[in-house]
Design a protein that fits this description.
The structure is a single chain. The protein is α/β, with parallel strands linked by helices. A 7-stranded parallel beta sheet has the order 3-2-1-4-5-6-7, with helices on both faces. The chain is globular.
């Protein structure tokens, strides 16, 4: 019963970074389960990916307080929030300004959305799913900002799970492994780089955005009603290899 088509009927979900990639897959999965979904992000939008679905596209910059406030001003009901908005700037993150930009979007942006959503989620006894990463668990020499932000997401998720429990709000996170998206296209096409990734991944394949969308959706279902503060790896076994 976890993935029935009407499980989220009558519920409203917000997916930040939901207009493409992993966020887009999350938005489509929640909509397939009956939710009214607001997929929010920065244009340009790949509108064709959501054709004939119960997904509304909205503009959102999570690094802007005004942008977040403007979006939430038009939301009267909210049951699910999935925070997928994020950026990565490989190599350049050793520059302090770029480091700060990545933190502002990935970590502070997530906190900003959670804070704005809390009153609505308290009313609905809803839930939050944040997007962590393998780099929540170990470092990345080319991406100190991204790694720091995702380590922060893991701790933020645990902290908000404690803080929001009295409101009846569950807060969990999904930690993706190597996922086949446009952001990893160069790695996928380079045998010298993709080879070691697949060799270390016990399931011996790249993950798909849908792999992440399925687990994120599960964390929003009644089947996960006793889960909060969890950071769930979805990585084909990469972390344990």
């Amino acid at each position: 019963m976890t993935f029935t088509a009407n499980l989220f009927q009558g519920k409203t979900a917000l997916v930040t970074g939901g207009t493409q990639g992993i966020g887009g897959a999350v938005a489509r999965q929640l909509a397939a389960m009956g939710a009214k979904v607001i997929a929010a992000g920065l244009p340009p939008f790949a509108a064709d990916e959501f054709k004939d679905s119960n997904v509304t596209l909205a503009e959102l910059n999570v690094a802007s307080e005004d942008s977040v406030n403007n979006l939430f001003a038009g939301i009267n009901q909210l049951d699910i929030v999935v925070n997928c908005a994020g950026i990565i700037k490989r190599g350049a993150e050793h520059e302090v300004e770029v480091f700060e930009q990545v933190i502002a979007v990935n970590l502070t942006g997530t906190m900003r959305v959670c804070t704005a959503a809390r009153p609505l989620l308290k009313a609905s006894k809803g839930c939050i799913v944040n997007l962590a990463s393998m780099l929540s668990f170990f470092g990345g020499g080319l991406v100190p900002g991204y790694s720091a932000s995702k380590g922060g997401i893991a701790q933020l998720t645990k902290s908000l799970a404690i803080a929001y429990a009295a409101d009846g709000i569950r807060v969990n996170a999904v930690a993706p492994g190597w996922i086949a998206t446009p952001l990893t296209q160069a790695l996928q096409e380079d045998p010298a780089r993709s080879g070691p990734i697949l060799q270390r991944t016990p399931l011996n394949r790249w993950g798909t955005p849908e792999d992440i969308g399925n687990v994120a959706a599960f964390l929003c279902t009644p089947a996960a009603s006793f889960m909060t503060g969890a950071v769930v790896p979805v990585d084909g076994g990469y972390l344990v290899a």
